[in-house]
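Subject: complex prediction, re-run

Hi both,

The earlier run crashed halfway through, so I resubmitted it with identical inputs.
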Amino acid sequence: MAAENDKSRLDDAARAGWLYFIAGHTQDEIAKMLQVSRASAQRLVSLCLAERLITFRLEHPIAACMELAARLKERFELVHCEVVPADPAAPQAVAGIAERCANLLDSTLRSETPVIVALGTGRAVRAAVERVTPIDRPNHQIVSLVGNISADGSASFYDTVGRLADRTGARHYPMPLPFLMSSEDERNKMVRIEPIAKVKAVAAKADLRLVGIGQMDQKAQVHIDGFVTRDELFEMMRLGAIGEITGWAYDAKGRLLKAGTNKRLTSIPPEVPARTTTIGAAVGAAKVPAIAAALSGGLINGLITDEATARAILER
Amino acid sequence: MAAENDKSRLDDAARAGWLYFIAGHTQDEIAKMLQVSRASAQRLVSLCLAERLITFRLEHPIAACMELAARLKERFELVHCEVVPADPAAPQAVAGIAERCANLLDSTLRSETPVIVALGTGRAVRAAVERVTPIDRPNHQIVSLVGNISADGSASFYDTVGRLADRTGARHYPMPLPFLMSSEDERNKMVRIEPIAKVKAVAAKADLRLVGIGQMDQKAQVHIDGFVTRDELFEMMRLGAIGEITGWAYDAKGRLLKAGTNKRLTSIPPEVPARTTTIGAAVGAAKVPAIAAALSGGLINGLITDEATARAILER
DNA sequence: TGGTTTTCTGAGCTATTGCTCATCGTATGG
DNA sequence: CCATACGATGAGCAATAGCTCAGAAAACCA
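This time it finished cleanly. Structure:
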């Protein structure tokens, strides 16, 4: 039986991982203990890592990062800020902040009293939900801030809300709408229909919003993912768009634009200034202006980023 | 200033640990990033570990088992200890530990050089031999530690030794004696006769002893199986018996009693303290005092049990 | 200041690990 | 029932990590 096999394989992987990382044995010793070849023991250890059966947690506050976080927190009056060590080899690496986001989600979801978590877009957010520790919390609610139907009508794009719900057993509210409607009128009509109004109502009560921050340039994720066309993107850039959060474009001062795609956008609009905990997650030099603007405009009141990005934001 | 140095050194250690474990770089890469030699990078990673700046968390039920096993092993100086996940649906289920016992037998018997395996009583031991993988090892020897003739003179009770011999083609030595003789004198006479002395001699050279552990209460297996009468059981309890291994009753400190049925018992007595690998297999809340006593008294130097039982033993 | 001790560093060796490739066994499907 | 393909396995090799040792730098003491 496949499931049985998988289970015992994961069991062995966990054993191997424990013996390797916690007990400190060599893979050769582990191989003998578990009666497998050394190669298999190595595979089990890798599997343990790949399946995230084991997680690493850095207990030590790295002074430099702590200081950057403190400065960001003070300067932009944030309720939450984390700065992870930069990885010079891969400045765009989302792994570090995803880990911290997952941690944040973990600790939020661990609560026994029901909580509502709202999720936006972004690679970091996606990577974060993958790393959330499974936990049974059927009374929590997970709600999407953005429509989950792409331009071509498929609902295929990465289902963050669903994934997180899988891991927690929480009720979830994806938003069954296209990212953009064809006109402002139509948008206004759609957001009033019952199921959408329901999602909106839940989102309004969210205890935590975790959102990615996108820059508005030729490499804008909203364009790469096919949610906005090249022309729409250029139009928004002409209108002064420098960044977007859940699709809502804003200018260099963090003011939401009242034109272009924003008028046809179905995403739930950000509170301005953010009152509920709204945490932006983003790294990379290209995103610095977008992040800084979002912070200035109060679109977010929390930030998870890396050392290099944090430094760049503060140096502007 | 030393503190400053230490601090920045720990900082670097944390950074190195982060880059190594979380970002997944090699120490060589880290060395270049931090502008130190590879050797120093290695030292920083070690330091990070040594100072517990980074911790590993294994998100798997097995983790708890591994830890319990390690604690039992240390606390009672065991040569072997395995803890299987408890089955909440069937706390008495012997299946899990039987599987592990079978595994242990498998790996012992796989050896090409002749080995001697001695078997005691117990449901787990019986279930284990049923699960041993058949293998042809005619030069091994399987020997029984207990008489295989019950009170009524039949040799019907479960023939562990024979079953295991069937599966391995090994020579086997059942012990053709009643469990209890009618008097101490008679016992002393019987154990000196040739066939029995032979069994005893083989057992003395056993490489592995696998024994069940029985509690001495109203539900004692030795009584249920009809080897000791209610009166005999009560007498032993009065004398302080809390558990038995191959019929040998011992008190709460794991000391063999020198009275009652122990004087008429034909079973081969345990070494105290155990020198050859002597593994106890038992689960269940009722057996906790018996197991703990056997461990304390050194009647066994190995244990296979389940999570709940392991926890209970350690919490005493 | 000069000697002494201690700590740190890097070179180089050995053990350990990760990976590739060929093989084997087994499940799947015609 | 056989053919095919898929995944698992072990051997062997290249990369990586851990360790020891000798020398250098720093700290300490008289």
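Chain A touches chain B through 35 residues (CB under 8 Å).

- K.
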